[in-house]
Write a structure and sequence with these properties.
The structure holds two protein chains of two kinds. By secondary structure, chain A is mostly beta strands. Chain A is 0% helix and 50% strand. Chain A is built from no helices and eleven strands. In chain A, strands 2, 4, 5, 6, 9, 10 and 11 form a seven-stranded mixed beta sheet that branches. In chain A, strands 1-3-8-7 form a four-stranded antiparallel beta sheet, with no helix packed on it. In chain A, a hairpin with a 3-residue loop joins strand 4 and strand 5. In chain B, strand 7 and strand 8 form a beta hairpin. The chains are: A mainly beta, B mainly beta.
């Protein structure tokens, strides 16, 4: 039982390049989300999904796309990377969007640097 | 929109000292409250959570937090810290009826010295 996994762990991009951060979970959780963590700013919600086929924007969605074709996977796409997207990205999951007291489980993070 | 304030950005304590980290939120409705910890190089882990009932909640590793509704606060405490408590601590709020979205504070970096 791997929990929440994220790949890659580290990535360096040049401005304008595209890439996809992967997030997978084997807990059969309905709710998945992406956060970015920046020094002095805590974690900010980028996008989230309450189930397969359903996604919505969080606090800082610009420059990022998501899709949710399966329960298990929730990839985050950067279409044209910018230095402002240098950050640590965390994926999180929880059991049910209606049970909003559920604990969120975080993945190990992806450290992204955009030059 | 709700917001979360953590007033202490960096705290340095000696082992065995007592700890209190402040957390205030701004939202007039019903909230669920969380404290997460991030040890160096690791992902976030849940320390404790408050949904309802007894406003004093106990979490893992000897941590506790008290929800004071009139003050919109959820301060984290530990009577005696250890070197292994060195980490970053995040307070987070979830609005009842707002799905599972969490709003985080900016974090408090705790360093415990031997």
């Amino acid at each position: 039982n791997a929990g929440v996994t994220q790949t890659p762990k580290f990535q360096v991009l040049k401005t304008g390049q595209s890439m996809t951060l992967q997030c997978a979970q084997d807990m059969n959780h309905e709710y998945m989300s992406w956060y970015r963590q920046d020094p002095g700013m805590g974690l900010r919600l980028i996008h989230y999904s309450v189930g397969a086929g359903i996604t919505d924007q969080g606090e800082v969605p610009n420059g990022y796309n998501v899709s949710r074709s399966t329960t298990e996977d929730f990839p985050l796409r950067l279409l044209s990377a910018a230095p402002s997207q240098t950050s640590v990205y965390f994926c999180a999951t929880s059991g049910s969007p209606t049970q909003n007291y559920n604990e969120q489980f975080f993945g190990p993070g992806t450290r992204l640097t955009v030059l | 929109a709700q917001s979360v304030s953590q007033h202490n950005h960096h705290v340095i304590l000696s082992e065995a000292a007592s700890l209190e980290l402040g957390c205030n939120y701004s939202y007039g409705g019903t909230v669920n409250l969380f404290w997460y910890v991030q040890y160096p190089g690791q992902h976030l882990q849940l320390l404790l959570k408050y949904f309802s009932g007894d406003p004093l909640v106990k979490g893992i590793k000897g941590f506790e937090a008290e929800f004071i509704k009139s003050k919109f606060s959820f301060n984290l405490r530990k009577p005696s810290v250890q070197w292994s408590d060195t980490a970053e601590y995040f307070c987070a709020v979830n609005v009842l009826g707002g799905g599972n979205k969490l709003t985080f504070g900016t974090g408090t970096q705790l360093k415990v010295e031997l």
